[in-house]
């Protein structure tokens, strides 16, 4: 489960008990990208979840890139994904900003 806001302690307790991954993504942009990549539909109201609302991801894991830890959502290469990630590295922030443009 991915949430845009905080997750309550009781909800965390039951997710931990039943082995459900939960994480918070505070950026609306990143939340939309994740929904698009997994085929999920963001739920903006508290309503029952239907099977067509749920997305799918083959594997989720933590990876260390440089000094940062990132969460990787990996799709099956056979799936027709609409999003790809390109990781840029540079000596300075200004060089990376120039490459990004």
Question: Describe it for me?
Answer:
The chain has about 100 residues and is an alpha+beta fold. It has one domain (about 1-100): 3-Layer(bba) Sandwich (GroEL). Helix content is about 30%, strand content about 20%. The chain contains three helices and four strands, in the order βαβαββα. It has helices spanning about 10-15, 30-40, 95-100, and strands at about 1-5, 25, 60-65, 70-75. The strands form two sheets. A two-stranded parallel sheet has the order 1-2. A two-stranded antiparallel ribbon has the order 3-4. Helix 1 links the parallel strand 1 and strand 2. The radius of gyration is 16 Å and the shape is globular. The N and C termini lie far apart (about 35 Å). About 0% of the residues are buried. One of its GO terms (molecular function) is ATP binding. Pfam families: Cpn60_TCP1. Keywords: ATP-binding, Chaperone, Nucleotide-binding.
Number of helical segments? 3
- At CATH's second level, what is the architecture? 3-Layer(bba) Sandwich
Which overall shape is indicated by the principal axes computed on the Cα atoms?
globular
> What's the count of strands?
4
Kindly report the average pLDDT value: 84
Radius of gyration: 16 Å
CATH topology: GroEL
In CATH, the homologous superfamily goes by the name GroEL
Between the first and last Cα atoms, what is the distance in angstroms? 33 Å
- Work out the helicity level: 25-40%
GO molecular function, one term: ATP-dependent protein folding chaperone
Keywords: ATP-binding, Chaperone, Nucleotide-binding
InterPro entries: Chaperone_TCP-1 (IPR017998), Cpn60/GroEL/TCP-1 (IPR002423), GroEL-like_apical_dom_sf (IPR027409), TCP-1-like_intermed_sf (IPR027410)
């Amino acid at each position: 489960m991915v949430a845009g806001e905080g997750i309550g302690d009781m909800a965390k307790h039951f997710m931990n008990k039943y082995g459900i991954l939960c994480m918070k993504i505070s950026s609306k942009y990143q939340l939309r990208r994740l929904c698009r990549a997994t085929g999920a539909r963001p739920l903006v109201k508290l309503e029952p979840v239907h099977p067509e609302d749920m997305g799918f991801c083959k594997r989720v894991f933590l990876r260390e890139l440089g000094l940062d830890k990132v969460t990787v959502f990996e799709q099956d290469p056979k799936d027709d994904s609409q999003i790809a990630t390109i990781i840029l590295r540079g000596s300075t922030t200004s060089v990376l900003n120039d490459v990004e443009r």
